[in-house]
Amino acid sequence: MSVPFSNTHLRIPRGFGTILEGLAREILRDQPEDIPKYAAQYFDVLLKQREESGMDPAEWAAKLEDRFYNNHAFKATGASPEKELAPEIAISK
Fold first, then answer.
1. Phi/psi of residue 20, nearest 5 degrees
2. Half-sphere exposure of 85 (CA within 13 A, CB side)
3. Are 84 and 60 in contact (CB under 8 A)?
4. Which of 15, 28, 31, 66 is in Cβ range 3.0-4.6 Å of 61 for a Cys bridge?
């Protein structure tokens, strides 16, 4: 059975790649035995931090990506990543 060729180019949402990189970094750092369970805990903590602080990490990561590639994201708001440090995420094992 052959698969038809497609010109469809799928794009991941802005900021999502950065969040996955953060998860991968924490997995490499902590070396958990159960990676799916660790990932679920990681995203639960991320969600709780978003709800408590009102800051969306995906949006913040997208702004950082924009600033890195074309420096337009922070011009309108006057915000800068140096002033808004990303919160640390602590996962209990």
1. -70, -35
2. 3
3. yes
4. 15
Burial label for 32, CB within 10 Å (0-12, 13-18, 19+), is middle
Contacts of 91 (CB under 8 A, 6+ apart): 26, 30, 38, 41, 42, 45
Instruction: Give the distance between the most distant pair of CA atoms in the chain.
Output: 55
Stated pTM of the model: 0.59
Q: How many residues does the chain have?
A: 93
Tokens of 26: 């924490």
* Band of residue 26 on the pLDDT scale cut at 50, 70, 90: very high
Residue whose entry in the numeric block shows the structure tokens 């805990």: 41
